[in-house]
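pasting for the record
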Amino acid sequence: MHEYPITQQIVKIAEEHAKEQGASAVSKVCLVVGEQSGFVGDSIQMYFDVIAKGTLCEGATVEFRRVKAKLRCCDCGELFERTELFSFACPKCGGQGGPTDIGKEFYIDSIEIER
């Protein structure tokens, strides 16, 4: 449910951008969404379609670039994705991986408009 207010902001930002550029419509909004961001792409898409009605964003597509979470090895510094659910072992040296901010991203990457 927390996707609704964030999707309202996405539509607002995209529409403001289109108006500033003198565009007749928004054709695409590209989002970067980390797998640990807490946001669900399908929910954003559903809300976008509803919220965008009657705005310059109506009919626009939403494209998602998903970012996998990565850990950083405390011993060798290697960045890696977990291969097993409960394993934090570094594939390079076997050390323990710690959390990073990679995979927590959530932002608008680009907005395509029509003139």
